[in-house]
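Re: your question from the hallway

Yes, I did run it. Sequences:
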Amino acid sequence: MLDSFGEVGNYERVDKPNEGLAHESFSSTDEAIMIRRVVLSGFRGFKKLSVGPFYRVNLIVGRNNVGKTTLLESLFLMAGPTNPSLPLTLSHLRGIDQFRNDPGEVWGWLFHRKDIGQKIELSSELPNGKTRTLILSMVDATSIGLSSKKRKIIRSMLTASSGDKPISLEMRYRDDKEIFVNTASLAESKIEFKHDRTLRVPTSILITGRSGNPTENAERYSKLEEVGHERDVLGSLKRIEPRLKRMAVLVTGSGPIVHCDIDIGHMVPMNYMGDGIGRLLTILLSIADSAKGMVLIDEVEMGFHYSAMVEAWKAIQEMARYYDVQIVATTHNWECIQAAYAVFSAEDEPNFVMHRLDRRDDEEIESTTYTLKMIETALASGLEVR
Amino acid sequence: MPPVKQPYPCRGNVASSKLLLVEGATPCHFFTAATRHLGIADALQILDYGGITELVNYLTTLAANEAFRSKVESIGIVRDAEGDALAAATALENAIQRANIPAPVRRSKFILPDNVSAGNIESLCLRSVATSPVMDCVNNFINCAAEHGIVWADGYERDKALVQVFASTRDRPYAGLAAYKGAWPWDSPVFADLFAFLQAL
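Structure:
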């Protein structure tokens, strides 16, 4: 759960079920997220975009600046629809950490053409046909009653502007049963959150960097060890590092770090292993920590030698199936697509699909779905799909 | 130094506003040579869709391709008539309809050998050399082999064998590759309709 903007790593957990809420009534239980289709309206560069169907594992391709990462961000918001701090997490993941006391600067880039007078509508359709909608809009904060209990001040503004009218980002989420309204308010040079935690949703994680946060990885690995599931990850990692005998969290001067035994007489900190194994560890631990949720991976091929991509996809496939996690990943990489085809075309059930985003003009971006058969044809005939 | 192997010319991404889609390696090479002869090779890209059973899937994948959507104005699709030119044309038309090709793209088709007869690309090649003295040798070979128990296919299906025998007299002994070496006389009137089709794309 993201409580502090300053503590954000390069991936984030959304709405982690909070044990402190165990006595409260939940409007949703442990139902898997598993989105089938999304329709986005007014979000960042998307005036309107419909993408689907989504399967268990989904690959997003397309040219630079067409909106692949933005699509992941929209899914991230939909995965934590009652957490009003997530938009700031997205800013952080894009390297923006400080803002002036200006709602247009803090939240403006969420809105298409930075028009904060408009609404953002993010709708998702589930396999059972039910739809869930998250609407983000800027509202006058004076109309919002923030109970002191639910207030959380997370960050001071870079510069203060005391005369500004209070204004809030409202996140209005509607599932098939209820409506939840949460806000992030900009007032008195601070951002305050009204976060209704009664909706329990599975953890979902957005991975954007090359390798994970070592502390987060250590925490996640420890959690797996606690329930005796660490071998799930070990077995999958062996696919790209056959020398791997065991792993353990060891405390170093830098804090707890996952270490690997590769039979050289010393445990090696994961940070000193190759990029590929570090990247795969981060992905697999994220999957294990997101049971029934989503793991969103930007540039999934990053860090992997092309020859390791098949094994990496197999590991992701195994873990995603075991933990009932939906994967949405972006790539620019031909070998990554080839490897995904090799792995997922061997399955009996269709569990994989690829979506390509293309800009039709300044305003319109379209999604085209590539089935495994179409990918096979493209790979065989040399037709470009990236 | 070993010769550099040329890449297969009919594989790759869309690069031209005019596409000619062909069925397999033999027509790929045949049409590559023919368009060079006509001087339209630079303006017309030839792509191999694999086989008739793959055509719908190829067209669907092609229609989704970004370069196709942004560049292509005209596509021509060629296939063999085999036993029935009309049935082949109908099947090809159905494939085009199912592929969801954007409306502005002009579509045309040619059923080999002549849009009417049963046959294939080999039938057309044979027609172009029907008066060649070498064809007497080819026929003698076929007949001689038959006398020794070789059973040849009948009708248009025999044309593939006849073309192979004829092409074996050239230094690139395959129906498609022989086209690069002038095996098929491009000035023959049997190619007139086909060339008109290519030039109209």
